[in-house]
Amino acid sequence: MQTRLNVAGALMVSVTTNEISAAVAIDAAAVAQLLGISQSHFFALLRMGRFGPMARRLGRAKRYSRSEVLAWFEAGCPSRAHWQAEKGVKS
Predict the structure, then answer these.
(1) Strand-strand pairing, 61-65 and 11-14
(2) What is the crossing angle of helices 66-74 and 28-35, to 10°?
């Protein structure tokens, strides 16, 4: 993991692919990297209900199950409603 400051002086953390593949719970940036999409596209998918896996809270942080993200992708990227119905989760 590397840390650096961006132009505004905020701390940025970049994660390597090896660190993502070893993690059980990953953040939104790592999900986007894992799927090969931009973070803004990932957040658009969330807003539109097109990303199936739900985040879990770990304190103030939201994390996604890496294995569930991969299973969702292998299932053809169904909408959130369809993915939750397949899993038998009630909304």
Answers:
(1) unpaired
(2) 30
Is position 77 within any domain? yes
State which residues form the domain around 42: 24-87
Place of tokens 């292998």: 74
Question: Quick check: is 80 in a domain?
Answer: yes
pLDDT of 19: 63
Q: How many domains are there within the chain? A: 1
pLDDT in tens, 19-43: 666 779 999 999 999 999 999 999 9
pTM: 0.74
Query: Which single residue is written with the structure tokens 């993690």?
Result: 23
